[in-house]
């Protein structure tokens, strides 16, 4: 008895889309099904190795039956158990299909457009077939199962007879209509073309019986002949000069589930201590789920064209986790295990070469195609920074020249080298300021005070940035200095003397202000303020940005520990109107002077991106002072 089942809701949606597809390139269904068959044979190959079974002649067969309108694809791969049948063909769980689904959710884009870009998998059969029957028998199993579906209504499963291991898919093609000629997929020459076009590099023979004309006893006759339709040479095994950019891009999109062309393709061979071919891609967009726990970095690993494993992390340093691609090396054993990988000497050599190559390419991009590099930086700059601080600076030489920063001059992002070259001669330190964006940074009082001296600063906007600065410490003998820290020492001797004098004269007022502000460790006059009346600077040690990062971490971990706080120093501009006002009022109206001081402090907090302690009190005081 056949069991009748419903598709899982998401499968149904995708299926509906396939059935009603108006997509013009329905022909890709063949590529998808052949690729599944090939994957299944890969899996069987590994299974056979493990079970000491002779794999025998592995391959895929296509049969066309015009009378019954069926196209059949069989493989002698791993096959499926009943449970696998239900799980694999009844739900959407798999990478490519999943990425497709995500994209559908996200984009308003023409859906039919996306179909062509993605591997949409098994369900694509329903673009051309009104009924699909799957006969399958798993490796090592005596049972065989038949799965049948006419589309969205659900599917039926029952036991069946099947002599050989593997899977056979029978597609009953839809009837032709005004828009679509489905009968073309029953034509031998058409199917041969499609295999050549999309599946030529499939590693296993794709065979079909074709009619050929032959001379037999002086007569021309058509005779059936067994033909292998694909050349079986993987793309990366072909001579480099013969492979086009377009083929490489198409391969990327199909294999690594992206719908955009890669930003950069890196295709190279290495011979020497270790021989390998690498085909690497830098995506032009941030991969789906890149920042989620589920993102799987790593490259595909092949040995002599035979797939070993996906997501081999040992081939890439963690900070290059955005790189996609594959490595094929004849020096690796086919049944290498995950555990062995970590200690494999060859693999480490390959990893080093890959790292070097990718960094060289990035360096070249930075030098030759700045616009493209900026795009790269926007997507993956964070990872390069991660490379610096996660190695505690050990990788700094490789990476520091790849860093880009916006600066307070408001222009395009610059490298450290460019920044240093543009510094005035008397500027020793590389100053940086932290802000939520470049606009906010430009308005910081400390920035104006630097600019008064003709200096610019790097703008740090990412949380990790200060850690990067601390890890680097300096660049070419120029120390990195937080411009919001206390001792910048920007004044001339003359200015310093003048300031000392003014401070002495206003000593009592400054201690009055300090008393009004218990949170602050010091209130002092400063000559570095340009237009702003006050600014908050951090004492030596923890910076304000670090304080915020720690506070966020503490909130997340909920440790109950009081968060670390930076030392707060309030600097006051002795030339500001408000200071003059304070001087005039603090003895005659100390209450008012106290309110002004508190408001100034709150404003300094706001400018640094901190909340004011008591917004209601703050608002009340401002209103009263205005009135
Ligand atoms: N010929 C086959 N032999 C064995 N298993 C198969 C075969 N075809 C499909 N499957 C199983 O069904 C699953 C779902 O197939 P489907 O084509 O929808 O997704 P996928 O191949 O995993 O991903 P995608 O095709 O998007 O790359 C496969 O992962 C595989 O486990």
Automatic annotation (TrEMBL):
Residue sites binding ATP per the record: 32, 36, 75, 80, 88, 94-96, 117-122, 167, 338
Record-given protein name: Chaperone protein HtpG
Key words, A-Z: ATP-binding, Chaperone, Cytoplasm, Nucleotide-binding, Stress response
The protein's assembly and partners: Homodimer.
Superkingdom of this protein's organism: Bacteria
Family, as annotated: Belongs to the heat shock protein 90 family.
Region described as C: 549-627
Classification via Gene3D superfamilies: 3.30.230.80, 3.40.50.11260, Heat shock protein 90, C-terminal domain, Histidine kinase-like ATPase, C-terminal domain
PROSITE patterns tied to this protein: HSP90 (PS00298)
HAMAP family in alphabetical order: HSP90
Location(s), subcellular: Cytoplasm
Cellular component, GO annotation: cytoplasm
Region A, annotated ranges: 1-338
Pfam families on file: HATPase_c_3, HSP90
GO MF annotations, alphabetized: ATP binding; ATP hydrolysis activity; ATP-dependent protein folding chaperone; unfolded protein binding
Function of the molecule: Molecular chaperone. Has ATPase activity.
Top-level taxonomy: Bacteria, Bacillati, Bacillota, Erysipelotrichia, Erysipelotrichales
Histidine kinase/HSP90-like ATPase domain mapped to chain residues: 25-177
